Amino acid sequence: MEIRDYDHERDLDAVKQIWREVGWGDEDGVKALDEFLPTTDTVVFDIDGTAECSVISINGSIRIIDTDVPLGVVAGVTTSRVARRLGAARALTARTLANQADAGMAVSALGMFDQGFYDTVGYGTGTYVNRIVFDPAKIDTGRSFRPPKRLKRDDLDAMYTAMCNRARGHGGCSLDAPILFKSEWRWIDNPFALGYYDGPGETLSHFFMGAAEGERGPYEIIFIAYQNVDQLIELLSLIGALGDQVQAIGMHEPAEIQMQDFLREPFRTRRMTQKSKFESYHATAAYWQARILDVARCINATRLDAPSTSFNLTLSDPVVDHLPEGENEWTGVAGDYVVTLGEESNAARGRSESLPTLTASVGAFTRAWLGVRGSRAPAHGVDGVGTSPRGPRR
Which pTM does this prediction carry? Predict the structure, then answer.
């Protein structure tokens, strides 16, 4: 058994076989790997000369307040039926984290299949994401909309650019992966997209892309991009017009608004559609995780509208138990730091006996740094954060 870099000529058919075994996409979706995989940083777990587990990594950025920080995204962890329970996925994820750090990424993020597994390599759970399914005929923005442009496969470059240029607040991510975005069109069942070319030089300014199921739905909106509130309202009004035919649409709630504000009779509609194919509901879950790869770089990018405060930070990092020896320069972020937070923030290795000490796992500290949870909130099953005026909490 061997962990090694992906070789496109040697491993493509094997990785396709893994994707078929885990049920990721139909044959058209699997075929997208031909173009997609060579543009990624992928590692594989080799058994008897065949790749039986793969982990895909993509670079991008995450916005921290008003600064973009380099982000490594673990975009796909797949294990064949042959490699189950061998520790392959965890070992490859640890190796991927080290590769991301060595490449200059400051943070890593992924979508988790369930809570707990990726905690073992230092990830902490992200914020809750609101998913809402609603009757589009109930949307009431009080605003009109213009006839949109029908967007097709030929518009995917424009859609990717619009996603990169969309409004992003704290925690908003952008991926350096145009071919991945194009592959999404293959992975969506019956894809459709509508939008407006209102940008400079008649570039695509705002749009949404989704999946259309059947005559009446439910539809699913998977991507939405806009640059200001007026454009978002126009898209919501356009979605509402689909209610002439479609009875249910699901989507993640756009940042900084509450969809309920734009729906007439949301509770009555929920009661009337309960247990039906077109049920309206609102669900909340945290399906993504993140972890810091470079403490100094993350802290240096932090700008707080608050008086400066300094403290010792003692971090633990479980990834060290899963890294192949001698393969990478990066070996995790465990250790002692002196941290200052304020309008100008910084962190450096070391310790000051005159300062209070914060002790945490890297996953818990990442959550506090992102604003997911406070330093004193309990977290069941996850290493917490503690403070002491004299030293680390034991």
Answer: 0.90
